[in-house]
Amino acid sequence: CWLAESATVMDAARLMQRAHSRAVLVRESSGVGIFTQSDLRNVVVAGLDANHEAICSHLKRPLICVNVDDDLHHAMLLMMRHSVQRLVVLEGDEVCGVLEQVELMSAFFNNSHNPRGITAQIGRANHPNMLLAAVKSTQQLIRTLHGNGMKITLLAELEREIRQRLL
Predict the structure, then answer these.
(1) Does this model's pTM top 0.70?
(2) HSE-up of 157 (CA within 13 Å, CB side)?
(3) How far, CA to CA in Å, does 23 sit from each of 36, 68, 99, 137, 154?
(4) Which is it for strands 2-4 and 23-28: parallel, antiparallel or unpaired?
(5) Which residues contact residue 96 at a Cβ distance below 8 angstroms, ignoring those fewer than 6 apart?
(6) Cα dist from 125 to 26, 114, 129, 141, 166, whole Å
(7) Residues 71-112: pLDDT tens digits?
(8) Which residues make Cβ contacts (< 8 Å) with residue 166, sequence separation at least 6?
(9) How far apart are CA 117 and CA 76, in angstroms?
């Protein structure tokens, strides 16, 4: 979903509703930005008039991007590293889509453990034993992903990201 840089926040909300989308992209003279449901919520909570509020004031930049040919594990690592719920997908230099976290997680749904679940487990921990459980979950995840053929370099990056959150 694309909007012009002259669009308002209300234009974005209407387009998101029509398209059943959680985000819209805006092409500006300086590049591309993204406006999400979270941004819409923030505008409403701030009491701004969505009918007159310029969308350009609320865009996220720079975009976190993944190439159309990149491995899904790489996309998952980018989402974790940057704490984002969507990535802009590029084919060459052109935007060809947006990859949502929910879509990505559904691709990994067959795994009983996933990195987002482990990081959530770490965030909820209020006792060292809970952190130990997260470490054990990480070890199991690494074994499962390795068994499924994930590249060692990606496994190492994934483990580093989880351990960084753990620390």
Answers:
(1) no
(2) 14
(3) 4, 19, 10, 32, 28
(4) parallel
(5) 68, 89, 90
(6) 39, 17, 8, 19, 10
(7) 888 898 899 889 888 999 999 989 988 998 877 776 664 444
(8) 122, 131, 134, 135, 138
(9) 12
